[in-house]
Amino acid sequence: MKQRISVTGSEKINMHSQCHFSAWIISLSLFFSASAYAVDSAYDQLVLQARDGQTEGLLNWLQNREKQGPLNVDQVADWLQVAGWAGRDEDVVHVWQRYHSQMDIPARGVVAAAWAYRNLQQWDASLSLWQNARQMEPDNDDLRTGWILTLADAQQNSLALNEAQRLVRDTPSAQHYQVMAYVWRAQGKRWDSLFAITQAWQKESDNNSIKADLLDDWTDNRIPGPALILSRTLELPAEQTRQLELNDAAELVRVAQVASRGEAERFRVADHALARYDALLTKWKAVPEAQEDYRQARIDRLGALLVRNDFAGVIREYDALRGDGKPVPDYVDGWVATALLSQRQPEAAYQLFGQNPAHVEPEMFYAALESEDFPSAKRIVDRMIASTPYLVYDYGSPVPSPNDRWLISRAMLANYYSSANDLPAAETLTEHLANSAPGNQALRIHYASVLAARGKTHAAERQLKIAEVLEPSSLDLERQQAYVAQSLQEWRQFELLTDDVVVRSPEAPATQQLARTRDIHHKYELRISGNKGISSDSPVSGTRDFTWNSVLYGPPIADHWRPFAGFNFATGQFEEGKGYNRDVLGGVEFTTRDYWVEAELSNQNFGHGNKQGARLSAWHDFSDSWRIGGSAERLSAGTPLRALRNGVTANGGQAYVRWYQNERREYRLSVAPTWFSDGNQRMEYGLSGKERLWSAPHFTLDLTPDISASTNTKENVPYYNPKRDFSVTPGLSAEHIIYRRYDTVWSQQLTGGLGAYWQKNEGTGLVTQLGYGQRVQWNNVLDAGVMLTWDKRPYDGERERNLGVSFDMNVRF
């Protein structure tokens, strides 16, 4: 009995690893020819076994038979074909090289050799054999497709594509579209490959080979949901199924992170992803061969945790993953950066990303910035700007497109300027960016935030109104509007905006910070200030002088009102004896947009019985630059203590106008009349200001000019009362931040002044002033400082000195 070996359309052939074709590609209809010799039953049995996949027996028989004498042409063809089935490509090549010059090997043997050379990536030899086989059987479609596949593998792209397109035009079958898909895939054009294989699938939706290729193209093109559904119709290895499930869950994470989706939708998708991961982790935890996929699921799950603002969970799981000693992929670095920064751990974030700075430049920049490492932050942003062109060319397009990375780098630079105390540069850059891209809401919000930081709250409000046109419900917009509303004393607006943001994104750090700002606004506020003379011979304050001022404000009532109560005390020793004043007060504060008013009643006791006082103070802002204000007082707080000691009281007031350009320049002009009970009338004038001379991230230096003058209508009174006087005292004020971490700041101040004082009938004398102090601000609820001051100046022609310490504290509780 003669046995023939055939390759049918249901069998697989050893192909390039990228190919999923079934055996229709090589359904050659090639069989063993009728042998001229008798084949014994043992050989027949080996042939049957080879066709069932048990190739070792036949291959061993042929190898031994060769040692006994030359093989005939059919035996050589058998050897080539069966060795190819067994994946022994090198054996196929060796057999071919030994026999092809000795005999005319039939087409099935030539094809086996062509496949072997192809699998060994010896493209020229393979293509030559394919051409030989096609000459032997020019009408064989399978030989034509095999040749096209090898052309694709050999990167002969134009010829492969032309032949594949001709193949489809000649016969638009599912198999030919599958060939076309393979050619596109070999060129790296995955979308074209997907289009072709989709057409093949539409023609033969039940073909498992086509479905396998479609599955790969969906996976490569990040279409994991349909890929996972399709995989359930195929018998796939468990490892591949797990990978598809991972891809599908990871796609949910990517979708949840898309900023253009509403926050509610993003949370919903993230919750769905977390539920999927919980199910996968439960299913794979006890499966030994699934541990790598189990770990990958834990890694990808970090992205979903981040979307849900579970920053502590991200950090905890990341640390656990690193604890097993295995590397964690770089793509999670950005997630961990956000989590660490949100948990106010910038040093840890910066140290982590130092291992791969190019991959996480924005995150590393903000980590450096929040760590107060301004030189490193500047180097990062400079490097990013230098390596980022304004335009980029997308693959296959001759038209340049704006580079998002360019815009990100400029936004980073603006943030650097703001944090490094260079607000003029920040304003210039953010204004240019906002006006250059009027449709970009984020840039407009950033510009408004810089304006607000410079005290230009009305201008910031206008910019936010412009930004509101683009997306009124933007969370970033509403947060910034809330802060600006607070600065403008638009309390109702502040409350409504904060309520909306808290409802929509309660877990977001920016929302929690805004909510805390509102909570602080609703707390009690205690203000304390005073000074203690250490060594003084001033006729104004006396010796062993001490003053204490305190006031406690209650929480806001009906948005605009705050009750307050306080106690003031002053004492000093004069030639005629000790003076003191005890002042108990209470009143109400009213605030609304551009207005502030305080009304106060007080009871003063300074040794001459109880006296009732009153005060009304107010100011109004016309704009960001101009403010007028003033006060009127019965029993003025500015009455010299020595006058009170001698039974002289005073009523008075003041009026002032302030011009404010920005945080670097402002001036104030004031006039303050006082009417004493002894008939004296005093008029005081003052002009003071600030000019920024130097600014650095942790240091500022200001010029503080001060000009003052006064006149009095009466002389020979028991308190210091020059007929006329005039002083000019320009000074310098330096502040150095010793330590800063978010809302906690420890700083030191150094002040100095040198000027002249003129007094009628006493001439002109030198005025010298020095001061050193420190200040602590903690968590936005405590602001306290103390300063040691020394000055020496003339009084009635004699230079006298004063050494004292002043203090102040503002605490919210």
TrEMBL record:
One of its GO terms (molecular function) is poly-beta-1,6-N-acetyl-D-glucosamine transmembrane transporter activity. Gene3D superfamilies: Tetratricopeptide repeat domain. Residues 1-38 form the signal peptide. The keyword Signal applies. Residues 520-813 form the PgaA membrane beta barrel domain. Keywords: Signal. It comes from the Bacteria. The keyword Signal applies. Pfam families: PgaA_barrel (PF21197). This is Biofilm formation protein HmsH. It comes from Trabulsiella odontotermitis. The gene is hmsH.
